[in-house]
Amino acid sequence: MHPQIRPRRRGLRTAVWSLVTTLVVAAALAGVVLWQHSYAMDEQRVSIRHGGHTLNAVLATPKDGRERHGLVVYVHGDGPVDATHDDGYKPLWEANAKAGYASLSWDKPGVAGAPGNWLGQSMDDRADEAAAAIAWARARPDIDGDRIGLWGASQAGWVLPKVAAKTPVSFVIAVSPAINWLRQGRYHLLAELRADGASASRTSAAIATSDTTRRLLERHATFEEYVQTMDGDADGMTADRWGFISKNYTADATQDLRALRGVPVLLALAGHDMNVDTADTERVYREVLDPGGALTAERYPDATHSFLKQSIERSDLKITFTALFMPRSLFADGFLDGQRQFLKDLGSGGVVRSR
Fold first, then answer.
1. How far is CA 12 from CA 1, 15, 41, 187, 288, in A?
2. What gap in Å lies between CA 149 and CA 159, rounded to an integer?
3. pLDDT above 90 covers what percent of the chain?
């Protein structure tokens, strides 16, 4: 026998076992990913007619064998959001399902092939859309029309009370909702500047630019006038975005919130929110809703505006890893359980008290 044959065979066996080990580990990791992304609910694509258009929606229902369920209707925040928010809503839907509630959400107009353009909408348009979705849901035999409520984050703060003024809702879950468009914009600007360690001169320049933009909005300036005033530097602004801001910059939820008096409201506030002044939001909600005694305000110290844990949101690698292998762990501690418990208390007739 040639002296080199045995070592080569050993080397081949080593390579084969290394490959097998790699494949087993890869299969195990793939299994973990599939398991972690298998949620305790059923999902179906549905279509809702509204204003001559179709809302491309997802209805997620509990696997509890019941014929009828309450429903949580989702109202998105800002941006081109699809029905599942890139699957980010699914842990929340699962929490709803565990409490016996279905979830309904749809692609914003112009997103994921949906007709229309969400940047052409006012907050009233968005409220009309949600009211149409609720009317569609009430006509379904598997939905309990007396237990339909709203979930909304950030920009949805201007939409939620408008929906409640158009159609009865049983509850509202408001996640770091905004109150006043201009105040929120200024808060966000200053928070970002502080986080960047901006100098006094840079801060002054940014505030001056913001003030100029406000004056342009107040006199209903065109996008072309905006660009000209900014010396040709649109800084990411588009004509559609300028039109959207022009439609909505006067938004203020303070008066509209009166439509939620007496409605159980869970107000979730993030401890590290750079987009919304949560102290201002809580103050206004308490002033308007506390007399009805149906407000529950919960603060989540480790949450960012998106309600991810701050330690995770700071790292793209951590976000990717956690989203793949532990998607429910993306969210701030207690957020999913708090939402589930709020809904369970409603379903069991529990009293929601102001705190």
1. 17, 5, 47, 64, 75
2. 13
3. 75
Residues counted in the chain: 355
Contacts of 323 (CB under 8 A, 6+ apart): 330
Task: Cite the beta strand spans of 107-250 per DSSP E.
Answer: 143-153, 172-175
3 vs 174, which has greater pLDDT?
174
* φ, ψ dihedrals at 204, nearest 5°: -60, -40
Supply the DSSP string of 225-287, one letter for each residue.
HHHHHTTT--TT--HHHHHHHHHHTT-B-TTGGGGGTTS-EEEEEEEE-SSS-HHHHHHHHHH
Question: CA of 263: how far to CAs of 75, 144, 161, in Å?
Answer: 17, 17, 10
Predicted confidence band of residue 348 (pLDDT cuts 50, 70, 90)? low
**Predicted pLDDT of residue 314:** 84
Q: For residue 241, which amino acid is it?
A: R
- Residue 39 near residue 328, CB atoms below 8 Å: no
Neighbours of 201 (CB within 10 A): 8
Closest CA to 38 of 94, 99, 86: 94
Residue among 131, 210, 139 nearest 164 (CA) = 131
Q: Which residues contact 32 (CB under 8 A, 6 or more apart)?
A: 325
Residue type, 4: Q
Residue 324, pLDDT above cutoff 50: yes
**Extended beta strands in the chain, E state:** 42-50, 53-61, 69-75, 101-106, 143-153, 172-175, 265-272, 295-304
CATH topology assigned to domain 42-180+251-347 = Rossmann fold (3.40.50)
Task: Kindly report which listed range (49-63, 183-197, 338-352) carries the lowest average pLDDT score.
Answer: 338-352
